[in-house]
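sry for the spam today, last one i promise. C-alpha cells for design, 302 residues
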C-alpha cells in the first residue's frame, strides 16, 4: 500500500508541477477572493512532506489527503502508531479545515494508540504506562492544534472536552469544562451544557459555578437526568446551601424510592462525581417497604 501511495503521489506531483505555471494567476485570484486557503507550512523537513507541500500548490490537497487517510488506516490496522501520527500530520497540513481528519487523528492517537500500549504484554509495565500516557498527550496536543487552526469549530472544542473528561485517561475536568463552555459559545447542541456541568461538578474549586449552571439546567425538565439531579443535591450539601435556597427535595426526588435508587447509584459511581452528604441522606430516608408488606397491608394488625 505504501509503494502504491508514493507512486500515486509522485504522479500527482508531476501533474501539479506541469500545470502549476498555467494556473498560478488563477490561484492567486481565488486566494484573494477567499475561495482557496493558503498552503499550510509543514514543520518537518521530511522529503515526502516537502513533496506534498508542492502538490498542495497545485490545488490537489484534498485528493492527496484522502489517499493518505487510507494509508493511515493501514497503519492503524497494524498498530504502527509512529507512521500513523506522521500521516495525520501530513493529512491535516493538506486539509487543515476538515474536522473529520482532526477527529480521526486525535481518536487514533489518544484512544487507540494509548490503549494499544497499555495492553501490549511484550512491553514492561513501565513502558506500557509511559506509552499510555505519551499517546494520551499526543492525542490532546493534536486536537488542540486542530482547534487553533479552526477557532470557529464547536465540534472540535466539544471533542477536546470529551478527551479531557475521559475518566480513564488522565482527566482534567477544569480544561474539559472550559472546552465545553467555548463549544457552547460557538453554537454547540444543548447537551453540551450538561457536559460542562458534569465537568465543573468534579472540580472542587468550581462547585459554586457548577451549582449555578446545574440549577439553570434543572429548569428544563428535559435536563433532569439522574446524574444532574444527584450532582445538584451533592453540590448543595458541599456548599452548605441554606434550606430556603435549595431546590426542594421533592422536586429533585419525587418519591423516597426514587431518592433511594438515585443516591445509591451515585454513591457507587466510578466517574469521580462528588458524593457529599449522600450517605447521611440515604440513612435518613424511611425504611424501604418489602414487597410482602406492600401486598398485605393488613398483615400484623389486630
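last one done:
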Amino acid at each position: 500500500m505504501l509503494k502504491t501511495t508514493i507512486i500515486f503521489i509522485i504522479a500527482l506531483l508531476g501533474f501539479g508541477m506541469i500545470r502549476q505555471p498555467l494556473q498560478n494567476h488563477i490561484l492567486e485570484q481565488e486566494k484573494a477572493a477567499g475561495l482557496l486557503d493558503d498552503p499550510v507550512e509543514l514543520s518537518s523537513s521530511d522529503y515526502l512532506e516537502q513533496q506534498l507541500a508542492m502538490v498542495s500548490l497545485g490545488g490537489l490537497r484534498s485528493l492527496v489527503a484522502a489517499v493518505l487517510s487510507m494509508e493511515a488506516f493501514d497503519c492503524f490496522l497494524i498498530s504502527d502508531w509512529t507512521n500513523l501520527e506522521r500521516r495525520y500530520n501530513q493529512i491535516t497540513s493538506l486539509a487543515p479545515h476538515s474536522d473529520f481528519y482532526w477527529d480521526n487523528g486525535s481518536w487514533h492517537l489518544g484512544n487507540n494508540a494509548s490503549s494499544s500500549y497499555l495492553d501490549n504484554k511484550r512491553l514492561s509495565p513501565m513502558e506500557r504506562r509511559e506509552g499510555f500516557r505519551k499517546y494520551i498527550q499526543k492525542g490532546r496536543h493534536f486536537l488542540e492544534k486542530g482547534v487553533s487552526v479552526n477557532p470557529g469549530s464547536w465540534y472540535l472544542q466539544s471533542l477536546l472536552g470529551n478527551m479531557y473528561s475521559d475518566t480513564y485517561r488522565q482527566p482534567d475536568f477544569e480544561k474539559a469544562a472550559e472546552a465545553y463552555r467555548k463549544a457552547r459559545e460557538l453554537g454547540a447542541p444543548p447537551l453540551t451544557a450538561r457536559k460542562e456541568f458534569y465537568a465543573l461538578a468534579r472540580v472542587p474549586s468550581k462547585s459554586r459555578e457548577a451549582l449555578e449552571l446545574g440549577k439553570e439546567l434543572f429548569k428544563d425538565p428535559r435536563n433532569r437526568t439522574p446524574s444532574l439531579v444527584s450532582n445538584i443535591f451533592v453540590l448543595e450539601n458541599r456548599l452548605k446551601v441554606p434550606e430556603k435556597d435549595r431546590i426542594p427535595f421533592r422536586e429533585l426526588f419525587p418519591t423516597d424510592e426514587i431518592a433511594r435508587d438515585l443516591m445509591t447509584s451515585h454513591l457507587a459511581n466510578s466517574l469521580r462525581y462528588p458524593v457529599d452528604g449522600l450517605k447521611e441522606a440515604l440513612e435518613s430516608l424511611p425504611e424501604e417497604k418489602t414487597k410482602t408488606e406492600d401486598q398485605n397491608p393488613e398483615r400484623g394488625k389486630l
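The radius of gyration is 27 Å. ok im logging off now
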